[in-house]
Amino acid sequence: MATRPLLFLDIDGVLNPVLPTPGFSAHDLLGFTVLLTVDHADWLRELSGTYDLVWATTWEHEANRHIAPLLELPSLPVVEFTGYRPQPGDPRLPARELFEGRKWAPLLRFAAGRPFAWIDDVIPPRLVRRARLRRDRLLLPIDPGHGLTRGHVDHLLARPPAPLLHPRTRRRRKPDGSSVLNVPRPGATFRDTVGASPPRRRSRQP
């Protein structure tokens, strides 16, 4: 069975917008006013047919205690950001992205190689651009004023992230027009000679 992609969900600015449209209701939770809509509840259930939903929010486990029941969602897995310590192999971020990208390393650790989508109102633009080059990642920045829209949902459903192609299927184009088929064994390649110049033979000197 194919691996389902993960969908990392933020709350503030995504499910709880700053400038909500009609249809949102206010809830007093943990001393904050949170605005939620049944439309988001319906859309998340729709997305759950394609994705495994995961909370990726500073609410952390409080999301299951307070937000999930209001949206009629089951308890979801949670990415824990509080107390996260950098680990060997974590991506290095430029200093200017340390705040915007503070969730990135924990998300990658949680995904552990699975394809994933991430919807958040704070995602470094550089990560968004780089993700466009990968079939296994989809990063959707959300306008915190309006939050998650139907357009975002349609995008997520139309282009769910997929596992990376097996290394045996990747070809690297060479300058002479031929290609090299990469294989897992280091140093082993198969040359595709279609369109390539015939190899030159060295003649012996008399």
Structural features, described:
The protein is α/β, with parallel strands linked by helices and 206 residues long. It starts with 5 loop residues before the first strand and ends in a 14-residue tail after the last strand.
Question: What's the structural blueprint in terms of helices and strands?
Answer:
Elements: E1 6-9, E2 24-29, E3 32-37, H1 38-47, E4 52-55, H2 62-70, H3 104-111, E5 116-120, H4 125-131, E6 137-141, H5 150-158, E7 171-173, E8 179-182, E9 189-192
Parallel strand pairs: 1-4, 1-5, 5-6
Antiparallel strand pairs: 2-3, 7-8, 8-9
Task: Quickly list its features.
5 helices; three-stranded antiparallel beta sheet; alpha/beta; 206 residues; four-stranded parallel beta sheet
